[in-house]
Amino acid sequence: MKVKIGNYPDRLTCCIHTRYMDKKYGYVDWPTEYNRTERLLDQLEDAVQSVYNVFNWAWFDRRSQKVKVRIDRWDTWSMDHTLAPIILPMLKQLKETKHGAPNVDMEDVPKELRATKKQIEAYGKKGDVDPKHFERWDWVMDEMIHAFEQKNKDDWQAYYYSYNDWDMEGMKAEQERISNGFRLFGKYYENLWD
Predict the structure, then answer these.
(1) Could you read off the pLDDT of 31-90 as tens digits, one per residue?
(2) 67 by DSSP, 3-state: which?
(3) How many helices (H) and strands (E) are present in the chain, helices listed first?
(4) 145, 180 in Cβ contact below 8 A?
(5) CA nearest neighbour of 187 among 179, 134, 96
(6) Angle, nearest 10°, between helix axes 36-58 and 16-25?
(7) pLDDT one-digit tens code per residue, 128-178
(8) HSE-up (13 A, CA, CB side) for residue 75
(9) What are the residue boundaries of the structural domains of the chain, listed by start?
């Protein structure tokens, strides 16, 4: 297998007003009404962006991300093992660099991470998420990472047996955890973005 994926194509963006407002007010607390300077910068940003949009349309929007993939015959013999060493470091990097978290279904996490309907409604009215929102996504990410770490080991079962002893219950529980990690990977696949 050989995979080469280039960077996403760039676009020109004007951020004169945005940078000014972020520097003056921070990233969240912008006023609802602008003063004269802020209005002028907003209009200037819109004008410059309209010129940039012509260049974006003419040049950048016609480009696409370059992707080259060559699959060898042996890559599909055990495709789950072939993909695991690729997916694992990507999951680890995403967990370290993520800037947000999607909604996670309560039945997918342990009871101590679940929010009640009252909590969800109370925070939803304020336009905020409940206190465990990000912890739930971290837990889901950890379970996916654990599953792929085990898949990368050829002998994860060896931990559960020795010369004359076999921990069938422990191995069954571990297999269920691995399978659940892969289930979560499939369920939240479209949420794997930064």
Answers:
(1) 888 999 999 999 999 999 999 999 888 888 878 889 999 999 999 999 999 999 999 999
(2) strand
(3) 6, 2
(4) no
(5) 179
(6) 140
(7) 888 899 999 999 999 999 999 999 998 888 888 877 788 899 999 999 999
(8) 12
(9) 1-70, 78-191
